[in-house]
Write a structure and sequence with these properties.
The protein is of the alpha+beta class. It has eight helices and 15 strands. Bound molecules: adenosine-5'-diphosphate and magnesium ion.
Length: 337
């Protein structure tokens, strides 16, 4: 389905921007945003970039767990006491998150935040085992009581919290791509941290997305040519600290409330970025066997996994016939790190 070529490269390969193409980076949502797009009218291209950045800021203001004024932060406070009415947008995104919880047998669960808030990866703070287990008992997406008619959300148990960090960036990327399409833009890349979506080609050639080595920031384990898809990578190297040789990072196994440790990175290719974002987090929790089994039964979804030994694993449709040798080479290269 896709041809895989394995070589070292930049994360998103950049070539000099030529006429009609515009590229811009910004730091929003606590991450790096990149927009690259083409329109023959430079004014429209400029407007496209500006609209994308404005949309990212709007979604950040609504869904950031760090802004006390965000709708999400308000929900976390108010839904403890009573059903809290939220915007159609937030309600719908929470519903989509719940659908991913059903699909993944609870590996994806936005109530992970009931434990997640006890970690501070920058300050190397984590709960002790007793506190973690007590809080982990609150992780269950069924603890969200959703009223479809009134668009309210309530927590069935005190102590429950939600966080959309596993899906909101992908959702934001999808919203931005829609805005660009509505403006008549047919070739674009929008990236928010590890979540990207591309439409069309790039100067008549596919876009190239690199998957970085989870243990060496400037190395790639694979580079994939792609068109008209979304790609998300979840890794244990983005937000973490180590203690006694154990890595504590931001992807939480809802069963234990502890970091999931079977994999180092998961890349998902999907038709839209909301799906690729939620599934990259989910497959990271599920691990190699259960994760690949899930991906292989979902049409239109592919995955590349790097396990804790540095070995690469591909979903069925990604197995490039001619690349068995290359895959071996890549596995050897990563395992060397
Ligand atoms: P990033 O935010 O670095 O792009 P991911 O897409 O992998 O990374 O999502 C990780 C984020 O997802 C965490 O920072 C946290 O907000 C959230 N999260 C962690 N564990 C879970 C989980 N089991 N289910 C849903 N969301 C989760
Ligand atoms: Mg994700």
């Amino acid at each position: 389905m896709y041809t895989l070529s394995l070589f070292l490269s930049l994360l998103v390969i950049t070539v000099p921007v030529s006429a009609g193409w515009l590229k811009e980076n910004a730091d929003i949502m606590g991450t790096r945003i990149t927009v690259e797009l083409f329109h023959p009218d430079p004014a429209v291209a400029r407007q496209g970039v500006d609209r994308v950045l404005a949309e990212m800021r709007r979604i950040d203001h609504a869904m950031s767990p760090y802004l006390a004024t965000s709708e999400l932060a308000q929900l976390n406070i108010r839904a403890r006491q009573h059903a809290f009415a939220v915007s159609d947008e937030l309600f719908t995104l929470i519903q989509r998150a719940q659908d991913f919880s059903d699909l993944t047998g609870g590996a994806f669960d936005i109530t992970f935040a009931s434990v997640g808030f006890l970690y501070d990866y920058r300050k190397a703070i984590r709960p002790d085992a007793a506190r973690r287990k007590k809080a982990a008992a609150l992780i269950d997406y069924h603890n969200l009581v959703m009223d479809k008619d009134r668009h309210t959300v309530a927590f069935s148990t005190p102590g429950v919290r939600i966080d959309l960090g596993g899906i909101a960036k992908g959702y934001a990327v999808d919203r931005c791509i829609r805005l660009l399409q509505d403006m008549g833009i047919r070739q674009a890349l929008v990236t928010a941290g590890g979540d990207s979506r591309i439409i069309g080609d790039r100067w008549g050639r596919p876009w190239t997305i690199g998957i970085r080595d989870p243990r060496e920031a400037d190395k790639m384990v694979a580079v994939i040519p792609l068109m008209d898809v979304a790609v998300s990578t979840s890794g244990d190297y983005q937000r973490y600290f180590e203690e006694d040789g154990v890595r504590y990072h931001h992807i939480i196994d809802p069963q234990s409330g502890d970091s999931a440790r079977e994999l180092r990175s998961v890349t998902i290719i999907a038709p839209d970025a909301t799906t690729s974002d939620a599934l990259s987090t989910s497959v990271f929790v599920l691990g190699t066997r259960a994760g690949l089994a899930l991906v292989n039964r979902l049409p239109g979804i592919d995955a590349i996994l790097v396990d804790r030994h540095g070995e690469l694993h591909y979903s069925d449709e990604l197995q490039p016939a001619e690349a068995a040798g290359e895959r071996h080479a890549a596995a050897t290269r990563t395992s060397a790190h």
